[in-house]
Design goal:
- It is a single chain.
- The protein folds into two domains: 14-32 and 281-389, Aspartate Aminotransferase, domain 1 (Alpha-Beta Complex); 41-275, Type I PLP-dependent aspartate aminotransferase-like (Major domain) (Aspartate Aminotransferase, domain 2).
- 47% of the residues are buried.
- The strands form three sheets. It has a seven-stranded mixed β-sheet, sandwiched between helices.
- The mean pLDDT is 95.
- The protein has 396 residues and is α/β, with parallel strands linked by helices.
- Helix 2 (41-52) runs antiparallel to helix 10 (266-276), helix 3 (65-79) packs parallel to helix 10 (266-276) and helix 4 (94-106) crosses helix 9 (247-259).
- Helices cover 43% and strands 14% of the residues.
- Helix 7 (177-189) links the parallel strand 5 (159-165) and strand 6.
- It has helices spanning 14-24, 41-52, 65-79, 94-106, 122-129, 148-154, 177-189, 229-232, 247-259, 266-276, 280-303, 329-340, 354-360, 372-391, and strands at 28-29, 89-92, 112-117, 133-138, 159-165, 193-197, 223-228, 241-244, 307-308, 316-320, 342-343, 345-346, 363-367.
- It has 14 helices and 13 strands.
- It binds 4'-deoxy-4'-aminopyridoxal-5'-phosphate (PMP).
- The site of 4'-deoxy-4'-aminopyridoxal-5'-phosphate has 14 residues, from helix 4.
- The site of 4'-deoxy-4'-aminopyridoxal-5'-phosphate (PMP) has 14 residues, from helix 4.
Length: 396
């Protein structure tokens, strides 16, 4: 059988490729963004109790009622955003499925989806699956700002959706209130639905603040706010994500969900009910720990010749490596993994035209969702092996 053409461009994911390369070379894997520690035991115990109890059959397609109530209560308490748990909150198998169902639910062939570049890799794949067209507008480093005129110029009468991701993977940018106000105004002028991917909402570093765009005037009813328990509770493998949207939009995104996944794993949803009952001290500790990890990795990278800004949010650092070697980022990332034993991701793979991006970018992404000991091991390898690798013929 031939690969169906619309999947051609997506046949292998860089995340899996770099993780395989990291495993083959026993590299410290700072490429893929999953923690090397688990979330609180109380969440695991709740899921285990759910399995031992009576949470082993299909959940309602929209999610366990108790989980949806907890999610609605949290969105109200944290951001002052009110959603009806029955008709406006939906549980998905990860934010990925929520994004996929949102695009599939709202777009048809020929419709256009607008997003910023660099972008998380599931946006183009989900857009292609819907038969829609992805248009991108650049975020420009080093501060990853954008030009509103670029966005305006990219909107056509087929544009249905603007996908926003804040805090932003891979740049660590947190969109400011004024960024969001201009996007909100554009969305209202052009009648766009905003899909906002907020999976890193709790990974925010002082003084940055996370503001959901749905909070801005006129935005609640045209915004699908997507987030996930994956990063907030360090359980990326559980794939429990969720979306908040006005009733009419919720109806649309629930249809693809009903006929693909139908419902997320029931006992894991029950486990996440316990997660949502964790108090403020959990979040304070979470941010403290991540601030320490971020500062540790920043210091290590800067010490070894990378130029990097402290990310305002997420658990990623994008690092400019041109002081070390001036080669395309694919080559640099593979060399780091094989010769230095520290895996990272080439940032060009977050661009629609990765080949063109490779020409101009000298950026790799490191994940710091790792134990301090893991980051220190990366530091030791950089100290010991980087000079050796650079001393190899032809590598200076
Ligand atoms: N959105 C972004 C921006 C991400 O970085 C990730 C995970 N890497 C996801 C969505 C996926 O979240 P989940 O695991 O809940 O599907």
């Amino acid at each position: 059988m031939m690969l169906v053409s619309r999947w051609q461009a997506f046949s292998s994911s860089i995340f899996s490729k770099m993780s395989q390369l990291a495993a083959a070379h026993q590299a410290v894997n700072l490429a893929q963004g999953f923690p090397d520690f688990d979330g609180p035991a109380v969440i695991k115990e709740a899921a285990i109790a759910a399995i031992r109890g009576s949470f082993n059959q299909y959940a309602p397609s929209t999610g366990l009622g108790e989980l949806r109530r907890q999610l609605a209560a949290r969105q109200a308490e944290q951001y002052g955003l009110q959603y009806d748990a029955a008709s406006e909150v939906t549980v998905f198998s990860g934010a990925t499925e929520a994004i996929f169902c949102s695009i599939m639910g709202l777009c048809g062939p020929g419709d256009e989806v607008l997003t910023f570049e660099p972008f998380f890799d599931c946006y183009p794949a989900a857009t292609a699956m819907a038969g829609a067209v992805l248009k991108t507008v650049p975020l420009r480093g080093p501060d990853w700002s954008f030009e509103l005129d670029d966005l305006k110029a990219a909107v056509t009468d087929r544009t249905r959706i603007l996908i926003l991701n804040s805090p932003h993977n891979p740049t660590g940018k947190v969109f400011s209130r004024s960024d969001l106000l201009s996007l909100a105004q554009l969305a209202q002028e052009k009648n766009l639905v905003v899909i906002t991917d907020e999976v890193y909402e709790e990974l925010i570093f002082t003084p940055a603040r996370h503001l959901p765009i749905a909070r801005l005037e006129g935005m609640r009813d045209r915004t699908i706010t997507i987030s996930s328990t994956a990063k907030t509770f360090s359980m990326t493998g559980w794939k429990v994500g969720f979306a908040f949207a006005d009733r009419k939009l919720s109806e649309l995104i629930r249809i693809p969900h009903q006929y693909t996944v139908f419902c997320s794993a029931t006992p894991l949803q029950a486990g996440m009910v316990a997660a949502l009952k964790l108090g403020q001290e959990y979040y304070v500790d979470f941010r403290e720990q991540y601030t320490r990890r971020r500062d540790k990795l920043l210091a290590i990278l800067r010490q070894h010749g990378f130029t990097c800004k402290a990310p305002e949010g997420t658990y990623f650092i994008t690092a400019d490596y041109r002081q070390i070697r001036d080669v395309p980022d694919m080559e640099f990332a593979a060399w780091m993994t094989e010769k230095v034993g520290v895996a990272c991701l080439p940032v060009s793979t977050f661009y629609a035209d990765a080949a063109a991006a490779q020409e101009s970018l000298r950026l790799v992404r490191f994940a710091f969702c790792k134990e301090i000991g893991t980051l220190e091991e990366a530091g030791r390898r950089l100290a010991e092996r980087l000079p050796q690798a650079l001393a190899e013929p032809g590598k200076a």
